Amino acid sequence: xxxxxxxxxxxxxxxxxAALSIGGDAEDLQAVLEEKDPELRLHKxxxxxxxxxxxxxxxxxxxxxxEEKMSEAQRKYFLTEQLKSIKKELGMEKDDKxxxxxxxxxxxxxxxxxxxxxxxxIESEMDKFSHLEKNSAEFNITRTYLDWLTNIPWGVVTxxxxxxxxxxxxxxRDHYGMxxxxxxxLQFIAVGKLKGSVQGKILCLAGPPxxxxxxxxxxxxxxxGRKFYRFSVGGMSDVSEIKGHRRTYVGxxxxxxxxxxxxxGSSNPLVLIDEIDKLGRDHRGDPASALLEVLxxxxxxxxxxxxxxxxxxxxKCLFMCTANDLGRIPGPLLDRMEVIQLSGYDVPDKLxxxxxxxxxxxxxxxxxxxxxxxxxxxxxSGEEEKKxxxxxxxxxxxxxxxxxxxxxxxxxxxxxxxxxxESLVRWYCREAGVRNLQKKIDKITGLLSLQVVAEExxxxxxxxxxxxxxSWTVSSDNLHEYVGKPIFxxxxxxxxxxxxxxxxxxxxxxxxxGSALYIETQGITRGLDSDGKRRGGGTLKTTGQMGDVMKxxxxxxxxxxxxxxxxxxxxxxxxDDTDIHMHVPEGATPKDGPSAGVTMVTAMLSLATDKPIKSxxxxxxxxxxxxxVLAVGGIKEKTMAAxxxxxxxxxxxxxxxxxxxxxxxxxxxxxxxxxxxxxxxVYDVAFGR
Length: 689
Known about the structure:
This protein is α/β, with parallel strands linked by helices. It contains 26 helices and 20 strands. The protein has a 7-stranded mixed sheet with strand order 14-15-13-12-16-19-20. A 5-stranded parallel sheet has the order 2-3-6-1-7, sandwiched between helices. GO terms for molecular function: ATP binding; ATP hydrolysis activity; ATP-dependent peptidase activity; serine-type endopeptidase activity; single-stranded DNA binding. InterPro entries: AAA+_ATPase, ATPase_AAA_core, Lon_bac/euk-typ, Lon_lid, Lon_proteolytic, Lon_Prtase, Lon_prtase_N, P-loop_NTPase. It comes from Skeletonema marinoi.
């Protein structure tokens, strides 16, 4: 090309030089062509060539650096591979796949017994794993699968505690009452001891919030010597949480049951499934249906997780479920569980729990007390190694009862008297559980801690936080200084005896425990018409946010009341002449159920016959259209509610006599119980015949 360029022609030379500038802008090239002056034309071409030279120089430098780095990386790679090959030939090192396979085999050798089907699957997967390339996607999937297969504790069980005395001591140490739960666990231990093998069981603890359903499960695990694992299913709507994901998904993993076995390292842990009555359900499936296999003793010895895709024996697990409302658990699932009803706590129960458990625990957490048994356990941790066996040390630790004493910086007179606890239970915390009572006690101890530290530092406190007296004792007299004014000011809505006409106390049961509620009725007259006859009558109006079942119960009760009044006094035309308005107080609280039937009939007859009812009488029972009194549930909770309200006489259905006989004596003490199979018996008791 250069040979065809006339070097003596400045125009052609400039054009040729500009054409060699590959990276030049179109405007700069156009300027070269448009320039008429040869010297300026050559100068512009020279500028373009200089830019091109600098760009080319920079590109060469970058290429040299990249090539140098690539050469270094290749050199390091080759040297590393050579080193691996040399070490492998000398037997000093194995490749990653061989190391992993050796680790898996070492892990499997630790298990007492691996099912034959599982062993075949593991061998097949390890054979496939040994032929996979490290960079392939299948390599990581297979590795994760083998990790889970080899971490499930095949045949590993923790040593079961078959000592009933020791187990009972552990259960009593952590929880007051709950005799039915403790008795069931002791029976479970006795069966295991006689059979000489580890057994599984499925229990469901049902009761109001705050009665210790969740916390007692951990104590049961300690009493049995089993590992403890808890997961909540409240609001859970994904079946994969129970049965795992299939391995085709990215990030797939097993469900909670397999995770539990891996986490505890045992095939017989105690698994607590919390809030089983609050399971969700959506397009991802129904977890309640997935739990049918888990909680079925005839199926769970071959439980198949979607991820593991092999039978896993979980029949040795002890499953404990908690629920507030059994009505929200599907029937097939409820049928698989042994249900233990936990009632709320009465005043004596709450006082014992507060004195023995809640107050010491709160004082320790607030720094006002120290647990000497914990301190002694820390001091003796080194000495325990010298004991004959670890089992003896563990048994001694279980049997050690906590002992408390005031901290050094706390005044010796600091205490919470029983009178303060009685006031707390009666006027502040009337719910079935003790969770609110715990909060109130924590508030007291927190304020006491603040006062102790403030006096040490000489700091000033607000009127609300400062002590009003020289005493460090919290009693019923100064309790309001710590927790405020009482929430409840009386035991009953109506203190007058007898009650006003048309008002009767009934007993109800809710998921929060038992409660006493009044049925109020009021007659409505509309005056006389032009002929001298009364206008209106024969209608019933109801208020109080009643559910559908309770509304139907009011209509039945109205019919029974009219029929009963016709038998008592045929001349009485009260229901014909007067409209009835029935109300259940606390209108913001939803109410439902048929157990207020006899109470409604009695309230309407009290209004019609102008006879009052005693204020210390309460009743419960469903009434049929012919006046039969039918059985209802929640007798224990209703009896406790009656005692809280100061009731002396209770009317129960005859069919509930068995439930009454099973109640502890302290609940029945001082109560006059009357059983009725027909409303005529209720009428005789209520109206004093």
